[in-house]
Amino acid sequence: MVNGVERQPERPWGPAEIREVLRARGLRYSRPRRVILGYLSEQDRHVSAETLYLALKQRGEDLSLSTVYLNLGVLADAGLVREFNGANGEALYDSNPSEHYHVICPETGEVRDVTPPMIDGQPLGSFLRSYVERQTGWQIDEPHVTLRGRAPRTRGEAESSD
Ligand SMILES: [Zn+2]
After folding, report:
1. d(CA 99, CA 97)
2. Is 53 exposed, middle or buried (CB count within 10 Å of its CB: 0-12, 13-18, 19+)?
3. Would the pLDDT of 49 be above 90?
């Protein structure tokens, strides 16, 4: 975007990589984890645990809501899904592993991915993190950038893309 730099979207995690990431944490690539990641990786999704639970149930998957919660937490801790807060502060889960930001419409709850602008050859978040680390000596977590705004649809205009 900025400086005409487009990041290549990173590929979704492959099964071998997922297995490796989980094994490094002493975790198995269990069936619930396969089912959850499989669903999330079908397209860009931002779902709550409850939405995911209901969608899986409709597909005939026999996972309880607490199993879905538990495993989303495990997958988020392992960095295989990202957790962020939706329009009303609810936890949403995202399988897109590439660095990206979110715009959220507080009225409709619509979430859209945004490619980070590049600053000095780094995505904005990474740039900000190293900048703050240099200034403070702190070790900064990966920043999650979420902006609120009104989608064109909400304002009664035609959506420009999608
Ligand atoms: Zn996202």
Report:
1. 7
2. buried
3. yes
Report domain 98-153's class.
Answer: alpha beta
Q: Are 130 and 86 in contact (CB under 8 A)?
A: no
> How close is the Cα of 115 to the center of ligand 1, in Å?
10
Q: How far is the CA of 45 from the centre of ligand 1 (A)?
A: 7
Could you give the C-alpha distances from 88 to 23, 85, 117, 119, 157, in angstroms and in order? 34, 8, 26, 31, 24
Helix axes 31-41, 15-24, angle to 10 degrees: 130
User: Which residues on neighbouring strands pair with residue 101, listed in sequence order?
Assistant: 114
In CATH, the architecture of 13-97 is Orthogonal Bundle (1.10)
Domain ranges of the chain: 13-97, 98-153
Give 117's pLDDT tier (boundaries 50, 70, 90).
very high
User: Residue 80 has what DSSP assignment?
Assistant: S
What's the 27 CA to ligand 1 centre distance in angstroms? Answer: 25
Q: Percent of the chain beyond pLDDT 90?
A: 59
Contact present, 114 and 99 (Cβ < 8 Å)? no
